[in-house]
Design a protein that fits this description.
Helix content: 10-25%
Number of helices: 5
Number of strands: 33
Distance between the termini: 47 Å
Largest sheet: 9 strands, mixed
Structural class: mainly beta
Shape: elongated
Oligomer: single chain
Length: 436
């Protein structure tokens, strides 16, 4: 399966763009050392007529055993009629002091010195940048300057990105030779042409999902560079009453990633859909009377807690008021979720003496016989579907009285079933405008 999670190579690829090559390659090499058997790396300093520079410590160029990488030491060689330019293993890639040389195979390595003639009439060859994209030449940036170099000199191409609407450059090709970020090559005895390595610029879209109680926008899109890496959006990218983002579901590989996770960027657009988890609230029931403590009950968003009983001398508790509805004592209160930073509380409704026997659950007059109004609060909403599902799950804990059961039966078939809850959800979403 395709995976977005970064590997060591992906991390290195991204870091190469931001920091110096030597520091990153050293860190990568140290991570790799434990996994790979080392070889012996030798500097060829035995050519006839070659001496160490006056300020060079020869001991730095002793063979290195059991190595998976080395950092090229400081120091120069001297040879009459030539300039010393650095080192090469294969005659293609060049290394200078401070650069990191990584061992790729399992054979011992001999690094050869690079020389160029020091005479005034030395022949220089052209290094030409050709900025084409998919076979078509594009406008060349002013900062991209052609070079000249003599055979044996080190060419370090300009690695500044060329950014297009749908692509960007990172590195160059010299024929079949791939020159990655901060790599250097040995100048041959002829002119060379460098063409860009192109990578796509893709859309990383973060989507809140088809959810309710969302505050603000539900989609954000960012342009990202293929083959680099990035951090996913944090858990606060979207705000939803009663829920926290606990992950991002990728449509590229089907995996769920943690908020802020570092991922590698593929060559295609990717959408990350928020994975939501309900918040846990401490719901406060406030008696509003001195001498009677608040009642605190914990519960998660969209779960039911029972409205508590309180006693007060000379008064009867008739219910608990939340927003525009009053809940009976002992009735279930389904936690709706609150805006970020806010809590949930209900206020006690007291009547002096004993409560009237005909008091309603809401304290207001409304039609109790409304098709779909399973919780008998005078309106049809998603809460009625929740009431039905709770009843079906545990009818003893979540009973429906005669009127509620009559209101809940909306699918045209006798009896309260899950189909009734589904019909109410469709009604609340506006898919249907009336019940059967």
């Amino acid at each position: 399966m395709k995976k977005l999670l970064n590997s060591a190579a992906a991390v290195m690829s991204a870091a190469l763009i931001a920091v110096s090559s030597s520091a990153v390659m050293t860190a990568f090499a140290e991570d790799t050392a434990a996994e790979k058997k080392g070889v012996t790396i030798t500097f060829n300093v035995s050519e006839e007529g070659v001496e160490f520079g006056s300020k060079t410590d020869p001991s730095l160029f002793e063979p290195v055993e059991n190595a998976t990488y080395i950092s090229i030491p400081e120091g120069t060689l001297v040879k009459e009629g030539y300039n010393f330019n650095g080192w090469t293993y294969d005659g293609v890639y060049a290394y200078q002091k401070g650069d990191v040389f990584l061992v790729e195979g399992d054979e011992d390595v001999v690094l050869q010195p690079l020389w160029s003639l020091s005479s005034k009439d030395v022949e220089y060859h052209k290094v030409t940048y050709v900025t084409d994209f998919n076979g078509e030449e594009i406008e060349r940036p002013e900062w991209l300057i052609d070079l000249k170099a003599a055979e044996g000199q080190v060419v370090a191409p300009d690695m500044t990105m060329i950014i297009l609407d749908n692509a960007y450059s990172r590195g160059w090709f010299c024929g079949d030779i791939q020159i990655n970020y901060n790599q250097k090559i040995v100048m041959p005895d002829h002119d060379i042409v460098l063409t860009p390595q192109w990578f796509k610029r893709v859309n990383f879209t973060f989507y809140a999902g088809d959810v309710d109680r969302l505050n603000g926008n539900d989609t954000y899109t960012f342009l990202k560079n293929e083959s680099s890496s990035t951090e996913l959006a944090a858990a606060d990218r979207f705000s939803r009453n009663g829920f926290n983002i606990t992950g991002w579901l990728s449509d590229y590989d089907g995996e769920v990633y943690a908020p802020g996770a570092t991922v590698s960027i593929p060559g295609v657009d990717v959408t990350f859909t928020a994975v939501w988890s309900p918040k846990t609230y401490t719901v406060v029931f406030k008696p509003g009377v001195k001498g009677i403590d608040n009642v605190k009950i914990k519960g998660d968003t969209d779960t039911a807690i029972q409205c508590p009983v309180l006693e007060r001398e000379g008064y009867t508790l008739t219910g608990w008021k939340f927003e525009d509805k009053t809940y009976k004592v002992g009735e279930d209160f389904v936690i709706p979720g609150a805006a970020p930073g806010l809590g949930i509380s209900l206020d006690a409704v007291w009547v002096e003496g004993e409560a009237p026997t005909d008091s309603t659950s809401s304290g207001t007059d409304f039609n109790h016989s409304i098709k779909g109004d399973a919780n008998v609060d005078g309106k049809v909403s998603i809460s009625d579907a929740v009431t039905i599902l709770q009843y079906l799950a545990n009818s003893e804990k979540y009973p429906l009285d005669e009127q509620a059961a009559k209101n809940a039966d909306v699918d045209g078939e006798a009896g309260v079933t899950g189909k009734d809850a589904a019909e109410i959800q469709r009604y609340d979403a506006g898919i249907i405008t009336e019940f059967k």
